[in-house]
Prior knowledge:
Largest sheet: 6 strands, mixed
Structural class: alpha/beta
Number of strands: 11
Number of helices: 16
Order of helices and strands: HHEHEHEHHEEEEHHHHEHEEHHHHEH
Strand content: 5-15%
Shape: globular
Amino acid sequence: MKQISFLFIIFALVLAACAPSTSQPAPSGEFDIDDWDSVLAAARGQTVNWYIWGGSESINAYVDNFYGKALQERYGITLNRIPLAATEDAINQVLSEKQAGTDPGAVDLIWINGENFFTLKQANMLYKDWAQKLPNAKLVNWENPAINLDFGTPVDNMESPWSSAQFQFVYDSARPSTASGQTDDLPRSYAELKAWACANPGRFTYVAPGAGGFIGTRFLKGALYELSGGEAQWKTFDQATWDKHSPALWAYLNELEPCLWRKGEAYPKNEPEMVTLFANGEIDLSFTQDISGAGRWIKDGLMPATARTFVFNRYMIGDFNYVAIPVNAPNKAAALVLTNLLLEPEFQAAQILPENGFGLGYAIDVTRITDTDAKTQLEQAAAKLGESATPATDLAKTLAGDTAPQYQGLVEQGWLEFVVQK
Length: 422
């Protein structure tokens, strides 16, 4: 009996060893998006293939030196930066994988926005329901249409912001016509701008809207927001809305025209031409979208050291660029960790500094930072930008999103027809 009992015990142990365990770890690469520790565990040892525009050596170096090192040292993740001549190359890669039924594919993360995001979203090739589940997503103002709409396309938690650019004005604090701006007498609305321009005839102009003058188109859109009573109605295209409010835009610009440089007989065709007019003392206000304000132009010797930036109280249009994860990405966990890293305050602080090679604006809302060390990092970075930059809090308070893309052509063509050729 003892021998039989012993054999039975041995048999039971063998069965137990062969039975599936309910406490076994998840297979490599699997994770629960609602459990960040499981994401970190799955990501360790992975290589994240980041497909990113490679046309800037300084940006390439920034990505490698900041994110590449941090991923490896903190999380055991290897960054494989795939340089692209154009973002469309990554889009075509993902679409060709869809056609071939390739899963997993080759692409983990894409630097993306606008039409390219729309294309992959329409093709149902984007990983879903993740962007606001990142730990650092709480630092992003998702309620702002400038972020939750990507050139009119709802983000829908399929991409996360990385950086931004925002419309600002430049003035010279040493010039008599603008020195009073130090006491906040500069125009703070489009209505005040027209009054200022006509009180200082010939000292203002704007970039001609169009292919080379994207910043000029943005200037006109801000005026359209103010004249029509808000930006919300311009997020989706409606011909009736355009027909109702666009005449007020043309009337405003035609009233402004005789007060402009050369009385509106000519316009700078792009931002550099406007900067030249400003530097030569022909006009007193210029445009920029740089987080460093006038800093880049000052550094290049194209603006005086006394150049400063300011914003209106509302309707300073900005746009964000994002990263997105294809639905067939082979290393989603690593892509999520990298995306969360992009939003870390220390890296958001580093990216605004031109000397680090990137020099684009925040993706986070700096007013949401509560951690003392993070606040200090951001404040120190902003201090390095100097007085030539607009305070980050001013940018955040005045940020407005862009219009639905269909209005772009209408603004540019309407300006030619109703202002230039009237």
